[in-house]
Amino acid sequence: MRGQIVIFGILASLCAGATAAELEVSVTDRRGEPVGDAVVTIVLHNAAANGSRNPPTRSAPSLHVVDQKALAFTPYVEVFRPGDQVAYRNSDRTRHHVYSFSPIKPFEFVLAPGVTSAPMRLERSGVIAVGCNIHDGMINYLYISDAPWAARTDERGVVVFRDLPAGAFDVRVWQPRLPPKRPDLVQSGITLRADERRSLGFALSLLPDSRLQFDREHTRY
């Protein structure tokens, strides 16, 4: 599977009269190993400086369900746009206490086995780190972005954006194992021609997996 792409909206007039471009983004670590669950976002290059605007976000919000099974959150990282909702489902045989200290959206749910929380609306852009107050190794990240195009990489470290208009773009990458409180990695001014298929690579320096070496401070986004 080539990643689960969440396209936040494409302005139809940008694509009119031109064949769409395609951009494949691959993310690896410094050893060249593929990095899954990296969030890739794309915006128009220098949109504000040039007086232009990014394509508007799609109007209909969606509901995402994060499962808890085998003492793990699935998916580990999920991508949202502002206005989307999230619900947590407990598919385990034990109780979970789902919580976040994030200033963007602090919350907590105590979920008995087989129970799904009420949907919770995510209004602000940013990253929300979520844990279980009973099982410290359980960690989940909600990435809320108003970028026109956003997706997370698959297990091969790859995501493909199709139907992009011709133009210049800034491509950003974020992953939970990057050092916290630092900006996303970015490659600016990536130019795509109509009908062009292009590949772009990012190599990340990553911290140890916090699900295996839990650090409560690392979750405070």
UniProtKB/TrEMBL annotation:
Signal peptide region: 1-20
Superkingdom, natural source: Bacteria
Keywords of the record: Signal
Gene3D superfamilies: Cupredoxins - blue copper proteins
Protein name: Methylamine utilization protein
